[in-house]
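FAQ
Q: What does a multi-component entry look like?
A: The components come first, one per line:
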Amino acid sequence: MRSVVAVSGRVEETPSTVTLRFPFAAAADPGQFVMLWIPGDDELPMSLSYTDGPSKGVTVKAMGSTSRRVLDIAPGTAIGIRGPYGNAFDLSPRRVLIVAGGSGAAVLAPAADRARALGAEVTVALGATRAPELLFRDRFRAMDARVEVATDDGSEGAKGFVTAVAARLLGESPFDAVWTCGPEVMMRKVIEAARPRGVPVFCSVERHMKCALGMCDACALGPYHVCEDGPVFSAEHLARTPDFGVFHRDSSGRRVPF
Amino acid sequence: MRSVVAVSGRVEETPSTVTLRFPFAAAADPGQFVMLWIPGDDELPMSLSYTDGPSKGVTVKAMGSTSRRVLDIAPGTAIGIRGPYGNAFDLSPRRVLIVAGGSGAAVLAPAADRARALGAEVTVALGATRAPELLFRDRFRAMDARVEVATDDGSEGAKGFVTAVAARLLGESPFDAVWTCGPEVMMRKVIEAARPRGVPVFCSVERHMKCALGMCDACALGPYHVCEDGPVFSAEHLARTPDFGVFHRDSSGRRVPF
Amino acid sequence: MSDLSVRLSSVPLRNPFLLASGIWGESGESLAAAWRAGAGGVVTKSIGAGPRPGYPNPTVETYGDWGMLNAMGLPNPGIDEYPKEVAIALGAGATVVGSVFAGDAAEFARLGERMAATGVHALELNLSCPHAEGFGTEVGSEPAAVEEIVRAVVRAVRVPVIAKITPNAADPGGLAAAAERGGAAAVSAINTLRALAVDVRLRRPVLAHGLGGLSGPAVKPVGLACVWQMYERIRVPIVGMGGISTPDDALEYVMAGARALEVGTAIAFRGVGVFRELTDGLARRLDELGFARLEDAVGAAHRAARPAGA
Amino acid sequence: MSDLSVRLSSVPLRNPFLLASGIWGESGESLAAAWRAGAGGVVTKSIGAGPRPGYPNPTVETYGDWGMLNAMGLPNPGIDEYPKEVAIALGAGATVVGSVFAGDAAEFARLGERMAATGVHALELNLSCPHAEGFGTEVGSEPAAVEEIVRAVVRAVRVPVIAKITPNAADPGGLAAAAERGGAAAVSAINTLRALAVDVRLRRPVLAHGLGGLSGPAVKPVGLACVWQMYERIRVPIVGMGGISTPDDALEYVMAGARALEVGTAIAFRGVGVFRELTDGLARRLDELGFARLEDAVGAAHRAARPAGA
Ligand SMILES: Cc1cc2nc3c(=O)[nH]c(=O)nc-3n(C[C@H](O)[C@H](O)[C@H](O)COP(=O)(O)OP(=O)(O)OC[C@H]3O[C@@H](n4cnc5c(N)ncnc54)[C@H](O)[C@@H]3O)c2cc1C
Ligand SMILES: Cc1cc2nc3c(=O)[nH]c(=O)nc-3n(C[C@H](O)[C@H](O)[C@H](O)COP(=O)(O)OP(=O)(O)OC[C@H]3O[C@@H](n4cnc5c(N)ncnc54)[C@H](O)[C@@H]3O)c2cc1C
Ligand SMILES: Cc1cc2nc3c(=O)[nH]c(=O)nc-3n(C[C@H](O)[C@H](O)[C@H](O)COP(=O)(O)O)c2cc1C
Ligand SMILES: Cc1cc2nc3c(=O)[nH]c(=O)nc-3n(C[C@H](O)[C@H](O)[C@H](O)COP(=O)(O)O)c2cc1C
Ligand code: FES
Ligand code: FES
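Then the predicted structure of the entire assembly, as tokens:
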């Protein structure tokens, strides 16, 4: 389902990250994404950071040229939305550890929201380069999740990688599942930290996307297509791909090492 | 809906008329027709003479080359059926006079069936060239309808046209509606006979048909299309056409006087 | 509500939605009925030199609510009989476009002249039926032939001549350009796409003629591409058609470059009431989108910037 | 259950359903996955001389469950990078057809040679992409050009060469005949139909590239007509495609003249499980209809008698 809608709200979440809200009636689950069309520019896959109700949202970090332009979109601007696509997080675990790096919190926040609403205990390890870039810290706190922070420069929380915080939390108390989204090297480390404890890890994975319909092969990840079989994959499934954490493909399908 | 089915039954109704039965699940009402495809030959509009249950039927009179070949179709032969198309008789009148000429009884018999089942009183004026050609006489009798017969040669019932019988019946007792099917001159006479008594007349009209979808214009009848607006028309509607009883159109759309 | 009236060359149309050729077009009463139902004008069935019965049935096959296959075989009463049908339509006040088909330029000119003499407001030349041997696409796929035919008819008549171009060609835009060179006042597109259906149980084509032409929503994207490419090649107005059944379909065609539109298969799928749905809906939609007049939206999609690399 | 194995020139296929070019064909793992899902073989993405990113998004638009519009722009990693993907597919045991595109005969021959060297079982020449400037339809609409390109590739390689013919032509059968004269071991058809979608609110084409290609059920009747016409013109086997998503669709193509089939858009609409649905369903259907082997049904619809006048 494709529709063209006017942006109804814009929130600067961090200096490099903006949330856009827009009317989009289709039902969606945390983990799913939409294709966000900036007319005259490009169309990008974006996880839904707000999945409930008729007003959905995406939270976009300035990366390349298009995403930078997304940050400047004013309310009222017409954008195209199609989706939602892909699978969703399994919300049944009772004790969840969320490990979010950078814009990864965008997809994990709505999952945390729903998990909390279902009565799960949610612990969040939230990482960023520096304190102002900590995405959705207050949103996680507001849902009564335990939030532990790491910044590269130590400006807030632990200095260093969020994976260290995650490893510590995994040691401290038992979890039924880990949900993570961020750079693939980060997610690999999370998988390694969880493996000895037998905690299943679910990663939201990004690949270049074009059709989002499981057809064009742009988002190939081993035998999977991220747009259709993902974007949420279990660590077991990822282990069956030669790609995860090793290479992704550019727009022409060439392998690009991480 | 088009389907290819095997003819499941064949009954010789009169020396020149055969009923073919075939499985066709779509719901149908008396008055409606199907397009009957004789593969390798042609496709002809045929009223349903059996409209109830999963086994439908058409009753075909030998006229031209194709209908003659229809008479030879053996059970088991594959035929194409699409439809049902067109409108149906309004079954609400309580006292119905049916006036059937030739193969016209094919479409009127199932209407009589349903009307009887709904408790209506049904009187039938049935005409044919000669006694063996009286179509569905026994079927009408079996449903406890009053049946009055006319044959051109007087071999059964009144000698002469069935319209004379109809006129007499209209004079004898009150009717809420007349349903008629047969040659257009016959139907015009029926309309004339019923007019002074104010009995509404409904005619099942035939025109050359191709698409049966209200598109190709082959079946044009004044501003109507018999396949879509008909085949059942009230006398009032027919009076609004310059065509009825005056001309029909051949396969190329030329007007052909009756 | 926005203004839907348009001018197709010298012919003013009360709205852009013409009845397409071959639908409800054999009888004058049907043409009049389409006009009364709200069509902006009516195009006649394509008329030839003599009566033609067309192909035997089956002549149509449908696909859900999105596609229609037909091979009628250009049945028509012939130009001697047809003037009385035109007279009925004109008598009802309809704006009438007379469609003709022929096998060569001379016959097109002769038929065009006879059709023009009936008083039609414009002519449409069927250069594009995909399944009639010796006519249609067979005479309309070469730019030189199209130009010659159009020129011959334009010389023979005073009414505007619309050339109906085939989509079954490598370069429909080139054919439209040829028609413009020949003096066409407008071009129309698309006719049906050459197509086939097979009945696997009967091991034979469904249509008696075998090959037929596809129409309806399925062909809208193809019709839009043709209109788009023509708009970039020619200056005369374009009459767009192929699968129009909603106001937004119509607006897509207009923004791709069409100034007037024809509606065919939608009449089978949605009934003749579709004309009112289209006119009411389009006027509302244009209004919503800020176009005071339909004419302002013609070709609007060509003025959008393309992303780099596209 | 009837025998579905067929021989496409010298290449035996375990069943007639090949993965169509451009679907799941950029990565070797995806090709292998389609093979494991039951495809009778896999056709690679069309590969060119160097890496090509393709057009910006949006690159696709869908119409209900019956149509798909795309303008990917022939993205591909280029012939230097691609052999490692082919190796993965071959390593999984797949029957692989290597698709290539180029701007002229010499480049086609060079690419064909490189692709053949990867060990593919056959080559498919993309002479038919409707929306890539300088490639596809632009080099594949003239019979002489098709013949020259095919001949050049046939001379350069030892594997069978399949020429993929455009439906965007006045006479696809003539193009197929040209490919046969050039030495093609088979022809395949159809590629997508040139098409367009406009977003009326944004007043612009939906796809970044503007024009794209239509595929899916909507184009099945057009594909069938192409295969039908080709079957009457050529003797080499035909690979039919365009909108195949059910066993009966497949059988229509077979009876129209196709010996093998490709399946593209159905993978988006129905998932890769469609390969098993197609093979199981077709084997059952052939059995029901009294065909012991798929090969016996090839062209069956051509052998039915036509009614007089059709
Ligand atoms: C399922 C999924 C969900 C995502 N969710 C979010 C989110 O919630 N928030 C967020 O900020 N970003 C998200 N992304 C990433 C986002 O789609 C873009 O990749 C990112 O915004 C950079 O785009 P750009 O054009 O500005 O960068 P570019 O200058 O084009 O390139 C920067 C990087 O982005 C990649 N990229 C560019 N285009 C695409 C594309 N069409 N698909 C995938 N990658 C692309 C390039 O390969 C490159 O590595 C998600 C990606 C996927 C696949
Ligand atoms: C709605 C409708 C219901 C009908 N119901 C019956 C029925 O129940 N029983 C029955 O025996 N007949 C019925 N007919 C008539 C039937 O369709 C044929 O017209 C008749 O069988 C003669 O066909 P033919 O090809 O043998 O004759 P032909 O040799 O072709 O011609 C004999 C006459 O039939 C007409 N005719 C031929 N083809 C068609 C066609 N496609 N559509 C309409 N008329 C055609 C010709 O104009 C001619 O007047 C019905 C017709 C219509 C329109
Ligand atoms: C049953 C039928 C008959 C047609 N006959 C003609 C015709 O005689 N002349 C002509 O130019 N086009 C003819 N066409 C083509 C239509 O005018 C139109 O170009 C095509 O159907 C696409 O429009 P649509 O999708 O709105 O139907 C016919 C189409 C149909 C479906
Ligand atoms: C997304 C997409 C990409 C395609 N890419 C190619 C390609 O690279 N080379 C090619 O020859 N055909 C390509 N095609 C055309 C298909 O191979 C096929 O000819 C067409 O889609 C019709 O089949 P379908 O209806 O089963 O999809 C592509 C089609 C689609 C939908
Ligand atoms: S984006 Fe096309 S297959 Fe996933
Ligand atoms: S049969 Fe075509 S309009 Fe009635």
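Q: Is there any commentary attached?
A: Sometimes. For this entry: The interface with chain A takes residues 22-27, 29-30, 32-33, 36, 45, 51-54, 56-62, 68, 70, 72, 75-78, 81, 199, 201-202, 204, 206, 208, 264-265, 267-268, 271 of chain D (CB under 8 Å).
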